[in-house]
Fold this protein.
Amino acid sequence: MNKKEDIVTFNKKKFRFSDWLAEKIIKAVAFLSIAVVILIFIFVFREAFPIFKMNKTGPAITETLVQESYGSAETENKTAKSIESQVENSSKISQTVDKPSATLLSNTWMPVSDNPRYGLWPLFLGTLKVTLVALLFAAPISILAAIYTAMFAKPRIREIIKPVVELLAGFPSVVIGFFALMVMATVLQNIFGYASRLNAFVGGIAMGLAAIPIIYTLTEDALTAIPKTFTEASLGLGASRRQTAFYVILPAAVPGIFAAVVLGLGRIFGETMIALMATGNAAMISINPFDSVRTLSATIGAEMAEVVFGDTHYNVLFLIGSLLFIFTFTLNALAEFYFKNLVIRKYQSKK
Amino acid sequence: MNRNIKDTIVESLTGVCVLLIIFIIVSILTITIIGGWPNLNWTFLSEFPKDGMTKGGIFPAIIGTAVMTIIMALAAVPFGVITAIYLAEYANEKSVIAKTIRFAVKTLAVVPSIIFGLFGLGFFIGFVGKNMDAIFSGGELKWGQPNILWASLTMALLTLPVVIVSVEEAIRTIPRDMREASLALGATKWQTIRKVVLPGSVSGILTGTILAVSRGAGEVAPILFTGAVYFSSNLPHSLSDQFMSLGYHIYIMSTQSSNVDATQPIQFATTLVLLLLTFSLNAIAVVLRYRIRQKAK
């Protein structure tokens, strides 16, 4: 009887106010990350939304904007192009001002003029070009390097290679951008002999440098996550290390490698400082990789500081931001939920 | 024989890729050092820019970066540590809440830094700041414009995942036995966390803080329009002041300076300072993290 009561009191937890409060506070704070993601959604979209409601912008407002933003220094190419367009526009004396939302799909990005046009196509095309160059440069190199580290290198060498490559991740993007602007642009121009010094190619290679550590690390993780039995079975059957790496391990790790490339893509897509410094910043429609381009993120970075708060141009820049956010969010969700499940399912079926 | 040759070729090809990456890293370092070292001296570090930014030092940029990262760490570290405690100690791994928080943290880690800048502009400056002005100073513009506080808080959001990941890793290395011993001695869960888990993860918290500071010192995109300025003749002495930052200084000097060629030594030296700063911070973090992992083994 007595014994039983003892057990009951032992199991019954004493209510402690401090413990209860601590748990509640910790839980509440942990929700902050979710809250921030939601707030980013709300506030970036909120500032972009008016673009679809607006009908007309008064030319008077754009006039003052023209004065303001030409006062400050812009990138060479940009200024030259803008002045050209300004001259063109003043001679035209356009009376009608297009609805800003209608110009979004036009072929010219000319936010600062009497008849502002917010065509996103040149920016999309520019981003696409830079991203392609960066991915074609970074993905093969980092995947092959990861294969070497995970499969061929001796353990002692691997211990050195991994942290050294990860050092690259610690380089601020402004430093990589500076290096691209000062050194790579000149070197690559001497090799390939193209006309404009800063272009999609230089920018793409530089952004590839920023993506290499991401793709490399995640690919290496994916390769080493493959069970040792795979390697042992393959080597035991008489395959060489190369054959094991490329015909056994690599196919098994494909979902993980794909996730690595997707996350690298997200990094390249949103990279701002390198794009601002090394791509030339001229919004034009061309598929030549050696032409100057202006990417979506660089457009925000270069123009946001000079727009009027709440102006159409301001809203369009937020719209671009929303697009970037949706895109990277989707990529991350894909890498997180789709590819990870693929890996798990694969091993479960093989068990 | 044929197969052996193929093996050698392919294996060396992958090796060449590693060498290429290392070559790039080494050349960035050497070129920055060669370009920046001759100009790096005490006057450069302790003087204000002179003659329309073409001469003088980078003192305000160093101080601006330091102050910004300190405020950032003060905001990011407590929140990061608490979130990590929740994820490691309280959360049920299979619960939807824990999964959602994890996904949110990962999302914060991959959102482009420029989006944080937009968020800082739209939320901190346009919403919080504007409303603070309306309430406290009757609509007079004080907080509703870019300043060092908003820039630091924006940066804190960006570096939050860095802190969370390192601290959680460190907490997970604390052996289960220690927690159980503490609970068996009659300590409550919160007491266990305070007296056993937190002291055991100090090095993890330190690693997270250092990595966050290194990341925050190098990022430029989030502060482009939330507080960084081209030139300021004063050091920031209140939270509502704007500030100069090393990364922004490099960007401005190399793309929009009145005379890019003449200021090249300054640009290289500033880049060298920033690189040395982030590099040494990262090196410390790597050593600390290595120690944590050794301890876990």
